[in-house]
Fold these 3 entries.
Entry 1:
Amino acid sequence: MVATQPPMHLSGHSICPSDPQFVEEKGIRAEDLVIGALESAFQECDEVIGRELEASGQMGGCTALVAVSLQGKLYVANAGDSRAILVRKDEVRPLSSEFTPETERQRIQQLAFVYPELLAGEFTRLEFPRRLKGDDLGQKVLFRDHHMRGWSYKCVEKSDLKYPLIHGQGRQARLLGTLAVSRGLGDHQLRVLDTNIQLKPFLLSVPQVTVLDVDQLELQEEDVVVMATDGLWDVLSNEQVARLVRSFLPGNREDPHRFSELAQMLIHSTQGKDDGLTEEGQVSYDDISVFVIPLHSQGQRSSGH
């Protein structure tokens, strides 16, 4: 990690004199090792969970969101629909992207195209604006497949009347009529209701990793990273969360527990008890986890101040 360029061999030995040149041509940097370590850790964790679930006869799964502060950089790894944002005095920056059946439609459809047996003849991989009915047979309707970002028309066949691989919109979108996420850990034994169709082949445990160069920021005391599960973001936007952060922290600088208290306040604000924070009638009944992480001390440590 301290080398300007990662060695080809971890031992440092060069079997081929041109090894450093090959590494340089690939553009491999120290931060790529952190990204690779996080990706591998998620994958290995998922395998361990799978073995433990099988041994105990249990079922279950979860999404995962991880932040690692290392050598002046913040690495955010996300698999699922949790979210992390950077909140500063004059900036709100997303540090992750959600993975849902909608956002990963093409990947999921591509898998069903290559391995049609995964659908067991019960689902259609094609997407239509709505669930097709018998009266649509023979009509030309809008559709899209794995290779398409846009839409086209096709003549409706009997096979198109099957339940869609991805159905619903927004928060209601479901994979195989079951899951609202397309990445996460676990769910090795999860099957579509009343069938033997497994969801695990469509679920990725590999995270997307975002890198924030903290050393390049002129950090202020109120600069924070907010990490939270989907229950918070279902009712509060990034901007609404940032507004709450900016209104709370400056007036509580002497409180040593202000960041955890802010996290509690964010959760409280999803219960519909605070006027003007959430859209009218929007309340979260989800279980919510929130972390508020100050970056100011991280920047001071990495800079040696």
Note: The two ends are 21 Å apart (CA to CA).
Entry 2:
Amino acid sequence: MSHNSLPNTVNQAKAKVIGELLAPVAPFDQKSGRETWTVAFAPDGSYFAWSQGHRIVRLVPWSKCMTNFSSVRKDERLNSARPRSLSRQGSEGSLVPGEPREHTIDCGDVVWGLAFGSSVPEKQSRCVNIEWHRFKFGQDQLLLATGLNNGRIKIWDAYTGKLLLNLMDHTDIVRDLTFAPDGSLVLVSASRDKTLRVWDLKDDGNMMKVLRGHQNWVYCSTFSPDSSVLCSVGAGKAVLLWNMDKYTLIRKLEGHHNDVVSCEFSPDGALLATASYDTRVIVWDPHTGTILLEMGHLFPPPSPIFAGGANDRWVRSVAFCHDGRHIASITDDRLVRFWRIDEKSPQAIGALTNGLCCAFSTDGSILAAGSRDGSVHFWACPRSVASLQHLCRMGLRRVLTTQQVYTLPIPCCMQDYLAYRSL
């Protein structure tokens, strides 16, 4: 039987397009080098950043994006016009003093990874001699880290666009960056040199640790919400979990049949989603290493041999919505899919040519997806009212491991629900 896209498309809603950001195209510009390898939202929702290609990173106030997208939709209703992109002409001169400013940053090399870091909530550095540091990051500081093709990491002030630090230790492309969400300004970089490196930006960017365990390229890494665990994924089917208090390997998760290229924890830390070139997104219990759900992008499911080869359903990116119930995936079949964690078929789909990466906005209402031509497209996340049971489950799972759930003096069915075994 031939492999096709998932069935039941009749029941799948069409994802609602919100707007797009288009990269400027110069005369005789070639497509190579224009890729948007990464997109990122600031933790406080103030900025959106994306790599435009050709060494350029663009920072745009997110509120301005939403205002422009709203005006576009209003014009469409009035004039039935074609959707247009956010206009960036003359933007610098029309700002109100004190408002976030747009910035265009030339990073000096191709940008593969982006991450925002904030010292809110405030957390002390692990370094003792903090008073001797060049930089004293205050609570109003917002940093942007960029991972480059030459192995360097550059740290920028997001409010001014000024270069603050230049971190040099990787020997190959820095593919991904992630900040600890606890405000410590601890940064982890994932590289094609097969290592992860841990940096303390409150200690002037001092490299604290090198994590070795991958046998091939490292594609992506992500912190658990409490910053205690790091997941890293890479070539050779690798999914690794690290204890970030001791910098030790906890376990390797076995289940993918091809390179694993993207990962993200659920907001309560009870679930972990990983995306692979094997045509699947797997949802794991990171506490036990158990596979809870497989989101397949081919029907019928491919054999491990087919999934391990060059197929046209490579999953490029996965993102966990902040409501804890929705997951988005970007694939090579020119589709973006929105999934519910309790369903095996997509809830909504949208068209996206040559998609590479995706991320949800801070409030979880919008998904941003970057593509090979340097542009970014935005969709509204499918919305529904969360049940009280789910909200209670998320609240409990923020503080309880799976093992602790099964020690609670409650019925087994309730234990399974809290452990997401009912998926």
Note: The first helix runs from residue 62 to 79.
Entry 3:
Amino acid sequence: AASREGRNPRAPESNGAAERREPDTKKDRSPREVQRLWQRPWLRTAGLGAGLVLTTLLLWSNLGAEDGVTEVLARRGEVVAGRFIEVPCSEDYDSHRRFEGTVPQALRIAEKGLSLGGSDGGASILDLHSGALSVGKHFVNLYRYFGDKIQNIFSEEDFQLYREVRQKVQLTIAEAFGISASSLHLTKPTFFSRINSTEARTAHDEYWHAHVDKVTYGSFDYTSLLYLSDYLEDFGGGRFVFMEEGANKTVEPRAGRVSFFTSGSENLHRVEKVHWGTRYAITIAFSCNPDHGIEDPAFP
């Protein structure tokens, strides 16, 4: 090894021959020498520091490894066309009303209308377009049945809110599927639903059977549901289930959540039975055929 001045150190003599040795390696030191060196404060501090750095590097390496601890959302060599990750809102937004406006008002419309009747079984509907309302084991036209009293139940603001919700849903569907909103036509039936755990009395109460909307309602091309109550907070059961081979896909209702899909046989689905509480939602459907279109409901 070269000395600091660049000259080679003088080699010790051994049996008349020169033997080159590295100066002061750990293997040449006695245990006492090593102990004395370790007891020097600066050396001990350096050793602890090196150990801490090594431990930190190992922990960082483990956290960054693909061992289930870390999920890679976008890899370097990947071209991501569009990826959305839903995370719970923090408490930073507590100063804002969570569902200010649309959902509470829409829920009040459903509650007011369905308070006029309701099925004897577990499923009731209110259709502001046709006036259909579940009453006992039958349906009545609430506009004819209650006449002018309707104006004491609903207001023009209620119908305006309904139109605004329909428009927002229509625009969202058009954007998601890459089509023009003007090519979507509101179609019937479009209704509020209320489901509870009451035993079914008629076939209309048996909402839990798997079905295809295009078969049940011939005019449907796109189906949407706006949920007005929360799964596991307002009711149990009642999840929306897409029936697929291998594994079903389930949507858990949340007030303000909109779920929409094409209405054909590619989306066979059902709703689980509600076990407790009350599940509210609005079903709004659209057709691509203008002949199947209907106007927004108007305040009587």
Note: Confidence is low (pLDDT under 50) at residues 1-23, 95-100.
